[in-house]
Automatic annotation (TrEMBL):
The keyword Iron does not apply. SUPFAM superfamilies: PLP-dependent transferases. Its cofactor is pyridoxal 5'-phosphate. Keywords: Pyridoxal phosphate. PANTHER family: AMINOTRANSFERASE (PTHR43094), AMINOTRANSFERASE CLASS-III (PTHR43094:SF1). Gene3D superfamilies: Aspartate Aminotransferase, domain 1, Type I PLP-dependent aspartate aminotransferase-like (Major domain). This is Beta-alanine--pyruvate transaminase. InterPro entries: Aminotrans_3, Aminotrans_3_PPA_site, PyrdxlP-dep_Trfase, PyrdxlP-dep_Trfase_major, PyrdxlP-dep_Trfase_small. Belongs to the class-III pyridoxal-phosphate-dependent aminotransferase family. The lineage of its organism: Bacteria, Pseudomonadati, Pseudomonadota, Alphaproteobacteria, Hyphomicrobiales. It holds the Pfam family Aminotran_3. It comes from Filomicrobium insigne.
Protein backbone atom coordinates (compact mmCIF):
# COMPACT_ATOMS: atom_id res chain seq x y z
CA UNK A 1 0.00 0.00 0.00
CA UNK A 2 1.27 3.50 -0.82
CA UNK A 3 2.63 5.36 2.19
CA UNK A 4 -0.04 8.08 2.17
CA UNK A 5 -2.83 5.51 2.29
CA UNK A 6 -1.66 4.38 5.70
CA UNK A 7 -1.89 7.87 7.14
CA UNK A 8 -5.30 7.81 8.75
CA UNK A 9 -5.90 10.89 10.89
CA UNK A 10 -5.34 10.32 14.60
CA UNK A 11 -8.55 12.08 15.59
CA UNK A 12 -11.57 13.28 13.61
CA UNK A 13 -13.03 15.71 16.13
CA UNK A 14 -11.19 18.96 15.37
CA UNK A 15 -12.18 19.36 11.73
CA UNK A 16 -15.71 20.77 11.46
CA UNK A 17 -16.89 19.65 8.03
CA UNK A 18 -19.14 21.89 5.92
CA UNK A 19 -22.69 20.81 5.01
CA UNK A 20 -21.99 17.48 6.70
CA UNK A 21 -23.65 15.43 9.41
CA UNK A 22 -20.42 15.57 11.40
CA UNK A 23 -21.35 13.24 14.24
CA UNK A 24 -22.59 10.52 11.90
CA UNK A 25 -19.58 11.04 9.65
CA UNK A 26 -17.17 10.51 12.51
CA UNK A 27 -18.81 7.19 13.29
CA UNK A 28 -18.51 6.07 9.65
CA UNK A 29 -15.91 8.26 7.94
CA UNK A 30 -15.29 8.13 4.21
CA UNK A 31 -11.99 9.45 2.93
CA UNK A 32 -10.47 9.82 -0.50
CA UNK A 33 -6.73 9.95 -1.02
CA UNK A 34 -6.35 10.28 -4.77
CA UNK A 35 -8.32 10.74 -7.97
CA UNK A 36 -7.83 10.01 -11.66
CA UNK A 37 -10.22 10.39 -14.57
CA UNK A 38 -13.69 9.36 -13.38
CA UNK A 39 -12.52 7.67 -10.16
CA UNK A 40 -11.58 8.38 -6.59
CA UNK A 41 -9.39 6.04 -4.57
CA UNK A 42 -10.56 5.72 -0.99
CA UNK A 43 -8.30 5.44 2.04
CA UNK A 44 -9.14 1.73 2.19
CA UNK A 45 -7.95 1.33 -1.38
CA UNK A 46 -11.24 1.07 -3.28
CA UNK A 47 -12.04 2.66 -6.64
CA UNK A 48 -15.18 4.81 -6.42
CA UNK A 49 -16.75 6.20 -9.59
CA UNK A 50 -17.36 9.93 -9.32
CA UNK A 51 -20.85 10.58 -10.69
CA UNK A 52 -20.98 14.27 -9.73
CA UNK A 53 -17.63 15.64 -10.97
CA UNK A 54 -16.72 16.18 -7.33
CA UNK A 55 -19.17 18.96 -6.56
CA UNK A 56 -19.99 19.73 -10.22
CA UNK A 57 -16.54 21.17 -10.82
CA UNK A 58 -14.19 18.53 -12.23
CA UNK A 59 -15.59 18.85 -15.74
CA UNK A 60 -12.44 17.59 -17.48
CA UNK A 61 -11.97 14.60 -15.16
CA UNK A 62 -9.61 14.20 -12.23
CA UNK A 63 -5.86 14.31 -12.10
CA UNK A 64 -5.20 16.45 -15.18
CA UNK A 65 -1.45 16.70 -15.41
CA UNK A 66 -1.51 19.83 -17.58
CA UNK A 67 -3.30 21.69 -14.78
CA UNK A 68 -1.00 20.33 -12.09
CA UNK A 69 2.04 21.35 -14.15
CA UNK A 70 0.71 24.88 -14.67
CA UNK A 71 0.05 25.27 -10.93
CA UNK A 72 3.50 23.95 -10.07
CA UNK A 73 5.26 26.25 -12.53
CA UNK A 74 3.60 29.39 -11.17
CA UNK A 75 3.92 28.31 -7.53
CA UNK A 76 7.69 28.33 -7.96
CA UNK A 77 7.80 31.50 -10.08
CA UNK A 78 5.12 33.78 -8.61
CA UNK A 79 3.48 32.40 -5.50
CA UNK A 80 1.38 35.48 -4.86
CA UNK A 81 0.75 38.87 -6.42
CA UNK A 82 -1.03 41.60 -4.46
CA UNK A 83 -4.55 41.73 -5.80
CA UNK A 84 -4.97 45.49 -5.37
CA UNK A 85 -3.11 48.21 -7.29
CA UNK A 86 -0.69 45.64 -8.72
CA UNK A 87 -1.21 43.07 -11.44
CA UNK A 88 0.23 40.01 -13.07
CA UNK A 89 -0.10 39.40 -16.81
CA UNK A 90 -1.91 36.07 -16.61
CA UNK A 91 -4.90 37.58 -14.78
CA UNK A 92 -5.43 39.98 -17.70
CA UNK A 93 -4.95 37.20 -20.26
CA UNK A 94 -7.46 35.03 -18.45
CA UNK A 95 -9.99 37.87 -18.34
CA UNK A 96 -9.59 38.22 -22.12
CA UNK A 97 -10.20 34.52 -22.64
CA UNK A 98 -13.21 34.34 -20.35
CA UNK A 99 -14.89 37.38 -21.87
CA UNK A 100 -14.30 35.91 -25.34
CA UNK A 101 -16.06 32.72 -24.22
CA UNK A 102 -18.93 34.60 -22.54
CA UNK A 103 -22.07 35.76 -24.35
CA UNK A 104 -21.32 38.81 -26.51
CA UNK A 105 -21.54 42.02 -24.51
CA UNK A 106 -20.29 40.58 -21.22
CA UNK A 107 -16.83 41.96 -21.68
CA UNK A 108 -15.48 42.59 -18.19
CA UNK A 109 -14.86 40.19 -15.34
CA UNK A 110 -14.25 40.60 -11.60
CA UNK A 111 -12.34 37.73 -9.96
CA UNK A 112 -13.08 36.04 -6.63
CA UNK A 113 -12.58 32.64 -5.04
CA UNK A 114 -15.90 30.84 -4.72
CA UNK A 115 -19.37 30.74 -6.14
CA UNK A 116 -20.68 32.45 -3.01
CA UNK A 117 -18.27 35.35 -3.49
CA UNK A 118 -19.08 35.58 -7.21
CA UNK A 119 -22.80 35.92 -6.43
CA UNK A 120 -22.34 38.43 -3.61
CA UNK A 121 -20.03 40.40 -5.91
CA UNK A 122 -22.73 40.35 -8.60
CA UNK A 123 -25.29 41.72 -6.15
CA UNK A 124 -22.94 44.46 -4.96
CA UNK A 125 -22.16 45.44 -8.54
CA UNK A 126 -25.91 45.68 -9.23
CA UNK A 127 -26.42 47.98 -6.24
CA UNK A 128 -23.42 50.15 -7.08
CA UNK A 129 -24.48 50.39 -10.73
CA UNK A 130 -27.94 51.70 -9.91
CA UNK A 131 -26.56 54.10 -7.34
CA UNK A 132 -24.01 55.44 -9.76
CA UNK A 133 -26.78 56.17 -12.23
CA UNK A 134 -28.80 58.11 -9.66
CA UNK A 135 -31.17 55.23 -8.91
CA UNK A 136 -29.89 54.38 -5.45
CA UNK A 137 -33.39 53.42 -4.33
CA UNK A 138 -33.14 50.25 -6.44
CA UNK A 139 -32.10 47.95 -3.61
CA UNK A 140 -34.58 45.08 -3.76
CA UNK A 141 -33.61 41.68 -5.16
CA UNK A 142 -35.74 38.88 -6.47
CA UNK A 143 -34.60 35.26 -6.26
CA UNK A 144 -36.48 32.02 -6.65
CA UNK A 145 -37.67 29.21 -4.41
CA UNK A 146 -35.20 26.31 -4.54
CA UNK A 147 -32.53 28.62 -5.91
CA UNK A 148 -29.06 28.03 -4.46
CA UNK A 149 -26.60 30.90 -4.62
CA UNK A 150 -24.04 29.98 -2.00
CA UNK A 151 -23.71 30.90 1.63
CA UNK A 152 -22.70 34.57 1.71
CA UNK A 153 -25.38 36.84 3.11
CA UNK A 154 -26.35 38.06 -0.37
CA UNK A 155 -26.59 34.66 -2.01
CA UNK A 156 -28.25 33.16 1.04
CA UNK A 157 -30.87 35.90 1.01
CA UNK A 158 -31.84 35.49 -2.65
CA UNK A 159 -31.50 31.72 -2.32
CA UNK A 160 -34.60 29.69 -1.69
CA UNK A 161 -33.43 26.75 0.41
CA UNK A 162 -35.27 26.94 3.74
CA UNK A 163 -32.83 24.71 5.66
CA UNK A 164 -29.88 26.91 4.68
CA UNK A 165 -31.61 30.09 5.88
CA UNK A 166 -33.32 28.79 9.02
CA UNK A 167 -30.60 29.50 11.59
CA UNK A 168 -29.51 32.93 10.41
CA UNK A 169 -32.22 35.40 11.25
CA UNK A 170 -33.64 37.98 8.91
CA UNK A 171 -30.83 38.05 6.32
CA UNK A 172 -30.96 40.90 3.78
CA UNK A 173 -34.11 42.99 3.73
CA UNK A 174 -36.13 43.61 0.58
CA UNK A 175 -35.98 40.19 -1.03
CA UNK A 176 -38.78 38.31 -2.78
CA UNK A 177 -38.79 34.88 -4.32
CA UNK A 178 -40.42 33.76 -7.54
CA UNK A 179 -42.18 30.43 -7.39
CA UNK A 180 -40.14 27.31 -8.08
CA UNK A 181 -40.68 26.24 -11.68
CA UNK A 182 -40.76 22.52 -10.94
CA UNK A 183 -44.07 20.71 -10.90
CA UNK A 184 -43.82 16.94 -10.60
CA UNK A 185 -47.46 16.37 -11.34
CA UNK A 186 -47.06 17.69 -14.88
CA UNK A 187 -43.44 16.90 -15.47
CA UNK A 188 -42.69 13.36 -14.33
CA UNK A 189 -40.09 11.52 -16.36
CA UNK A 190 -39.95 14.14 -19.09
CA UNK A 191 -36.72 14.87 -20.91
CA UNK A 192 -36.06 18.53 -21.63
CA UNK A 193 -38.06 21.56 -20.65
CA UNK A 194 -41.73 21.58 -19.65
CA UNK A 195 -44.15 23.95 -21.35
CA UNK A 196 -45.46 26.42 -18.81
CA UNK A 197 -42.61 28.93 -18.69
CA UNK A 198 -44.09 32.25 -19.75
CA UNK A 199 -46.94 32.27 -17.25
CA UNK A 200 -44.62 31.45 -14.37
CA UNK A 201 -42.24 34.19 -15.36
CA UNK A 202 -45.14 36.63 -15.54
CA UNK A 203 -45.23 36.46 -11.74
CA UNK A 204 -42.30 38.81 -11.93
CA UNK A 205 -44.69 41.45 -13.27
CA UNK A 206 -46.77 41.06 -10.11
CA UNK A 207 -43.73 41.70 -7.92
CA UNK A 208 -42.83 44.70 -10.07
CA UNK A 209 -46.36 46.05 -9.65
CA UNK A 210 -46.21 45.45 -5.90
CA UNK A 211 -42.88 47.14 -5.21
CA UNK A 212 -42.50 49.46 -8.18
CA UNK A 213 -39.85 48.73 -10.81
CA UNK A 214 -37.81 51.69 -9.67
CA UNK A 215 -37.10 49.94 -6.34
CA UNK A 216 -35.84 46.66 -7.77
CA UNK A 217 -32.12 46.17 -8.42
CA UNK A 218 -31.95 42.70 -9.94
CA UNK A 219 -33.41 39.26 -10.45
CA UNK A 220 -31.02 36.44 -9.55
CA UNK A 221 -31.61 32.94 -10.91
CA UNK A 222 -29.72 29.86 -12.01
CA UNK A 223 -30.65 29.10 -15.65
CA UNK A 224 -31.06 25.50 -14.47
CA UNK A 225 -31.38 25.13 -10.70
CA UNK A 226 -28.56 22.69 -10.00
CA UNK A 227 -27.77 21.63 -6.50
CA UNK A 228 -31.40 21.65 -5.33
CA UNK A 229 -32.35 18.90 -7.72
CA UNK A 230 -31.52 19.80 -11.33
CA UNK A 231 -34.67 21.64 -12.36
CA UNK A 232 -34.67 22.57 -16.06
CA UNK A 233 -36.40 25.88 -16.77
CA UNK A 234 -39.79 25.57 -18.43
CA UNK A 235 -39.90 26.70 -22.05
CA UNK A 236 -39.92 30.46 -22.47
CA UNK A 237 -39.28 31.12 -18.76
CA UNK A 238 -35.80 32.59 -18.95
CA UNK A 239 -36.65 34.47 -22.14
CA UNK A 240 -39.64 36.05 -20.42
CA UNK A 241 -37.56 37.01 -17.38
CA UNK A 242 -35.15 38.68 -19.78
CA UNK A 243 -37.96 40.63 -21.48
CA UNK A 244 -39.54 41.80 -18.23
CA UNK A 245 -36.28 42.80 -16.54
CA UNK A 246 -35.14 44.71 -19.60
CA UNK A 247 -38.43 46.57 -19.87
CA UNK A 248 -38.17 47.77 -16.26
CA UNK A 249 -34.46 48.54 -16.05
CA UNK A 250 -33.95 45.63 -13.63
CA UNK A 251 -30.69 43.73 -14.01
CA UNK A 252 -30.80 40.02 -14.76
CA UNK A 253 -28.11 38.03 -12.96
CA UNK A 254 -27.54 34.42 -14.01
CA UNK A 255 -25.79 32.24 -11.48
CA UNK A 256 -23.90 29.85 -13.75
CA UNK A 257 -21.70 28.41 -11.04
CA UNK A 258 -22.77 24.90 -12.05
CA UNK A 259 -24.04 25.43 -15.60
CA UNK A 260 -20.96 27.11 -17.09
CA UNK A 261 -18.00 25.36 -18.71
CA UNK A 262 -19.74 22.67 -20.66
CA UNK A 263 -22.32 21.27 -18.26
CA UNK A 264 -25.07 21.97 -20.82
CA UNK A 265 -22.92 21.56 -23.93
CA UNK A 266 -21.95 25.24 -24.09
CA UNK A 267 -19.43 27.53 -22.48
CA UNK A 268 -22.35 29.09 -20.62
CA UNK A 269 -25.97 27.92 -20.40
CA UNK A 270 -26.94 31.48 -21.42
CA UNK A 271 -25.72 30.53 -24.87
CA UNK A 272 -27.85 27.39 -24.90
CA UNK A 273 -30.90 29.56 -24.30
CA UNK A 274 -29.76 32.31 -26.67
CA UNK A 275 -29.86 34.88 -23.86
CA UNK A 276 -27.53 37.54 -22.57
CA UNK A 277 -28.07 38.41 -18.92
CA UNK A 278 -26.49 41.58 -17.54
CA UNK A 279 -24.24 39.68 -15.14
CA UNK A 280 -23.05 36.06 -14.89
CA UNK A 281 -21.48 34.49 -11.80
CA UNK A 282 -19.25 31.47 -12.45
CA UNK A 283 -16.85 29.27 -10.44
CA UNK A 284 -16.26 25.50 -10.16
CA UNK A 285 -15.46 24.28 -13.70
CA UNK A 286 -13.29 27.29 -14.48
CA UNK A 287 -10.30 25.57 -12.82
CA UNK A 288 -11.65 22.02 -13.08
CA UNK A 289 -11.93 22.22 -9.28
CA UNK A 290 -8.14 22.24 -8.89
CA UNK A 291 -7.81 25.69 -7.24
CA UNK A 292 -10.62 27.75 -5.67
CA UNK A 293 -11.54 30.43 -8.18
CA UNK A 294 -14.60 32.30 -9.42
CA UNK A 295 -15.67 35.36 -11.29
CA UNK A 296 -18.45 37.77 -12.14
CA UNK A 297 -18.90 38.77 -15.78
CA UNK A 298 -20.59 42.11 -16.44
CA UNK A 299 -21.90 43.98 -19.45
CA UNK A 300 -20.09 46.92 -20.97
CA UNK A 301 -22.89 49.26 -19.81
CA UNK A 302 -22.56 48.28 -16.19
CA UNK A 303 -18.81 48.50 -16.28
CA UNK A 304 -18.89 51.89 -18.00
CA UNK A 305 -21.32 53.25 -15.41
CA UNK A 306 -18.93 52.28 -12.63
CA UNK A 307 -15.75 53.54 -14.30
CA UNK A 308 -16.50 57.07 -13.19
CA UNK A 309 -15.61 59.28 -10.25
CA UNK A 310 -12.13 60.59 -9.38
CA UNK A 311 -9.55 58.91 -11.57
CA UNK A 312 -7.12 58.13 -8.76
CA UNK A 313 -9.57 56.36 -6.46
CA UNK A 314 -10.90 52.80 -6.80
CA UNK A 315 -14.10 52.87 -8.86
CA UNK A 316 -15.61 50.01 -6.87
CA UNK A 317 -14.83 49.45 -3.19
CA UNK A 318 -14.80 45.69 -3.25
CA UNK A 319 -12.23 42.92 -3.67
CA UNK A 320 -10.52 39.92 -2.12
CA UNK A 321 -6.91 39.31 -1.11
CA UNK A 322 -6.93 36.35 -3.46
CA UNK A 323 -8.81 37.88 -6.44
CA UNK A 324 -6.94 36.69 -9.53
CA UNK A 325 -4.50 34.57 -7.51
CA UNK A 326 -1.61 33.36 -9.71
CA UNK A 327 -2.21 29.69 -8.90
CA UNK A 328 -5.87 30.03 -9.79
CA UNK A 329 -5.31 31.91 -13.03
CA UNK A 330 -2.70 29.34 -14.09
CA UNK A 331 -5.12 26.51 -13.32
CA UNK A 332 -7.90 28.28 -15.22
CA UNK A 333 -5.75 28.88 -18.31
CA UNK A 334 -4.69 25.22 -18.40
CA UNK A 335 -8.31 24.13 -17.87
CA UNK A 336 -9.61 26.30 -20.71
CA UNK A 337 -6.88 24.82 -22.94
CA UNK A 338 -8.15 21.33 -22.16
CA UNK A 339 -11.77 22.25 -22.82
CA UNK A 340 -10.75 23.73 -26.17
CA UNK A 341 -8.21 21.10 -27.27
CA UNK A 342 -10.43 18.15 -26.35
CA UNK A 343 -13.63 19.87 -27.54
CA UNK A 344 -15.27 18.89 -24.27
CA UNK A 345 -18.29 21.20 -24.52
CA UNK A 346 -19.12 19.64 -27.89
CA UNK A 347 -18.56 16.23 -26.35
CA UNK A 348 -21.10 17.02 -23.63
CA UNK A 349 -23.55 18.02 -26.30
CA UNK A 350 -23.01 14.78 -28.20
CA UNK A 351 -23.42 12.71 -25.03
CA UNK A 352 -26.57 14.51 -23.85
CA UNK A 353 -29.07 12.20 -25.54
CA UNK A 354 -27.46 8.94 -24.54
CA UNK A 355 -26.93 10.25 -20.99
CA UNK A 356 -30.65 11.06 -20.77
CA UNK A 357 -31.58 7.60 -22.07
CA UNK A 358 -29.27 5.85 -19.62
CA UNK A 359 -30.57 7.87 -16.66
CA UNK A 360 -34.19 7.34 -17.72
CA UNK A 361 -33.70 3.59 -17.42
CA UNK A 362 -33.77 4.08 -13.67
CA UNK A 363 -37.54 4.40 -14.03
CA UNK A 364 -37.56 0.64 -13.60
CA UNK A 365 -37.23 1.15 -9.83
CA UNK A 366 -40.59 1.78 -8.14
CA UNK A 367 -39.04 4.12 -5.55
CA UNK A 368 -37.79 6.47 -8.28
CA UNK A 369 -40.40 9.24 -8.53
CA UNK A 370 -38.92 11.45 -11.23
CA UNK A 371 -35.87 11.77 -13.45
CA UNK A 372 -34.83 15.11 -14.97
CA UNK A 373 -31.86 15.01 -17.34
CA UNK A 374 -30.61 18.12 -19.10
CA UNK A 375 -27.15 18.59 -20.55
CA UNK A 376 -24.85 16.33 -18.54
CA UNK A 377 -26.80 16.79 -15.36
CA UNK A 378 -29.73 14.84 -13.97
CA UNK A 379 -31.88 14.99 -10.86
CA UNK A 380 -33.39 11.70 -9.69
CA UNK A 381 -36.07 11.94 -7.01
CA UNK A 382 -36.42 9.01 -4.66
CA UNK A 383 -39.51 8.31 -2.62
CA UNK A 384 -39.03 9.76 0.87
CA UNK A 385 -38.45 7.20 3.57
CA UNK A 386 -41.29 6.32 5.92
CA UNK A 387 -39.01 7.70 8.63
CA UNK A 388 -39.13 11.18 7.13
CA UNK A 389 -37.89 13.27 4.23
CA UNK A 390 -34.19 13.10 3.65
CA UNK A 391 -33.61 9.98 5.71
CA UNK A 392 -33.45 7.55 2.85
CA UNK A 393 -31.41 10.01 0.81
CA UNK A 394 -28.81 10.27 3.49
CA UNK A 395 -28.64 6.51 3.91
CA UNK A 396 -28.47 6.14 0.17
CA UNK A 397 -25.40 8.32 0.03
CA UNK A 398 -23.71 6.23 2.70
CA UNK A 399 -24.53 2.96 1.06
CA UNK A 400 -23.91 4.10 -2.48
CA UNK A 401 -20.45 5.16 -1.43
CA UNK A 402 -19.57 2.25 0.79
CA UNK A 403 -21.36 -0.67 -0.73
CA UNK A 404 -21.53 0.21 -4.40
CA UNK A 405 -18.36 2.25 -4.93
CA UNK A 406 -20.36 5.20 -6.24
CA UNK A 407 -19.95 8.83 -5.28
CA UNK A 408 -23.12 10.76 -6.01
CA UNK A 409 -24.45 13.94 -4.48
CA UNK A 410 -27.65 13.38 -2.52
CA UNK A 411 -29.77 16.24 -1.20
CA UNK A 412 -32.80 15.29 0.80
CA UNK A 413 -34.36 12.64 -1.41
CA UNK A 414 -32.82 13.65 -4.72
CA UNK A 415 -29.63 12.31 -6.17
CA UNK A 416 -27.83 14.46 -8.68
CA UNK A 417 -25.72 12.87 -11.35
CA UNK A 418 -23.42 15.27 -13.18
CA UNK A 419 -20.48 13.34 -14.59
CA UNK A 420 -17.31 14.82 -16.00
CA UNK A 421 -17.53 15.67 -19.67
CA UNK A 422 -14.92 12.98 -20.38
CA UNK A 423 -17.25 10.17 -19.22
CA UNK A 424 -17.57 7.23 -21.60
CA UNK A 425 -20.89 5.54 -22.30
CA UNK A 426 -19.64 2.53 -20.34
CA UNK A 427 -18.97 4.79 -17.35
CA UNK A 428 -22.45 6.31 -17.62
CA UNK A 429 -24.04 2.86 -17.59
CA UNK A 430 -21.76 1.87 -14.72
CA UNK A 431 -23.04 4.86 -12.74
CA UNK A 432 -26.63 3.84 -13.51
CA UNK A 433 -26.03 0.21 -12.54
CA UNK A 434 -24.35 1.12 -9.27
CA UNK A 435 -27.14 3.56 -8.44
CA UNK A 436 -29.73 0.87 -9.21
CA UNK A 437 -27.84 -1.58 -7.04
CA UNK A 438 -27.84 0.92 -4.18
CA UNK A 439 -31.54 1.66 -4.64
CA UNK A 440 -32.39 -2.05 -4.67
CA UNK A 441 -30.60 -2.52 -1.40
CA UNK A 442 -32.89 0.15 0.09
CA UNK A 443 -36.19 -0.98 -1.42
N1 LIG B 1 -24.26 29.11 -6.89
C1 LIG B 1 -24.57 27.90 -7.33
C2 LIG B 1 -25.56 27.76 -8.44
C3 LIG B 1 -23.97 26.76 -6.79
O1 LIG B 1 -24.30 25.56 -7.23
C4 LIG B 1 -23.01 26.94 -5.76
C5 LIG B 1 -22.32 25.75 -5.13
N2 LIG B 1 -22.84 24.52 -5.37
C6 LIG B 1 -22.73 28.23 -5.32
C7 LIG B 1 -23.36 29.29 -5.91
C8 LIG B 1 -21.76 28.48 -4.22
O2 LIG B 1 -20.48 28.14 -4.62
P1 LIG B 1 -19.34 27.95 -3.50
O3 LIG B 1 -19.68 26.71 -2.76
O4 LIG B 1 -18.09 27.83 -4.34
O5 LIG B 1 -19.34 29.17 -2.66
Amino acid sequence: MAEHLKNEPSDLAAYWMPFTANRAFQRRPRMVVSAKGMHYTTSDGRQVIDATSGLYCVNAGHGREEIAAAIKEVAYRLDYAPAFQFGHPQAFELANRLTALAPAGLDHVFFSNSGSEAVDTAMKIALAYHRQRGEGQRTRFIGRERGYHGVGFGGLSVGGVPANRRDFGTLLPGIDHLRCTYDREHQSFAIGEPEWGRELADELEQLVALHGASNIAAVVVEPIAGSTGCLPPPKGYLERLREITKRHGILLIFDEVITAFGRTGYGFASERYGLTPDIIAFAKGVTNGAVPFAGTLVSGDIHAALMTGPEHAPEFFHGYTYSGHPLATAAAMATLDIYRDEALFERASTLEEVFADVMMEMQSMPIVLDIRPIGLMCGIDIEPSARGPGVRGYELLQRAFHDHDLYVRVINDTMIVAPSLIATIDELTDIRDRALGALKSLS
